[in-house]
Write a structure and sequence with these properties.
The protein is about 25% helix and about 20% strand. The protein is of the alpha/beta class and about 210 residues long.
């Protein structure tokens, strides 16, 4: 089914800053959900970069199917996206981002980059806004960078990866929701680390004292 205006009619009045294209580097625990959410949001072109294959231990925190074990992750998530948004243009690149050739680099230089890898190696892109995020146990880190300059500092990600103690969907939603911000939001580096233990109590505090 081709995408129609009716599909997004209920979000039309929100005036969202939906990019025409986006690149997701690393489509594992967080990145697979980011890629899927971007497609559902209406991003027309997605470049997906990851060298890995789907393994059984990935299934506790990703949308991948058991039948996709052994497939390249970029191929597996591409097929899941196509089931929901057949009109989305997807370019899957099954290799390390550091090994992209000139043509692949050109294709991957989209409107915005999502870095969802489990390492802290600097991205090879220049002068492109980057949203990056991950988790280690219950600790979540999210960063906005006005360019792809490395900025994670001493943060180490993914040494402990529980499935639904910290649902990766939570991080993916936070990363994708950054698109609700005006373009100037991405002109300044922003960084936050917090525990998933803080999320629900913080939200519930807003209800204290509210009359029923």
């Amino acid at each position: 089914m081709e995408t129609t205006e009716e599909l997004y009619i209920r979000q039309k009045d929100l005036h969202l800053n939906i990019p025409e294209s986006a690149t997701v580097v690393g489509v594992g625990g967080v990145g697979s959900w980011v890629a899927l959410d971007l497609a559902l949001l209406g991003v027309k072109k997605l470049v997906l970069i990851d060298p890995d294959i789907v393994e059984e231990h990935n299934l506790n925190r990703t949308p991948f199917k058991e039948t996709q074990i052994g497939e390249p992750k970029v191929v597996a998530i591409s097929s899941l996206i196509k089931e929901r948004r057949s009109a989305t243009e997807i370019i899957p690149i099954n290799k390390w981002v550091e090994n992209l050739n000139k043509e692949e680099m050109k294709m991957a230089s989209t409107d915005i980059i999502y870095d969802c890898r489990d390492t802290t190696v600097q991205l090879p892109f220049k002068s492109l806004p980057v949203i990056t995020g991950g988790y280690n146990g219950k600790n979540i880190t999210i960063q906005i960078m006005p360019n792809s300059k490395f900025g994670w500092g001493e943060v180490t990600r993914y040494t402990i990866t529980p499935s639904y103690v910290v649902p990766p969907q939570l991080i993916a939603v936070l990363l994708v929701s950054a698109l609700e911000q005006p373009p100037e939001f991405f002109n300044k580096s922003r960084y936050i680390t917090f525990s998933s233990d803080e999320v629900l109590p913080t939200l519930l505090k807003s209800f204290i004292g509210v009359k029923q």
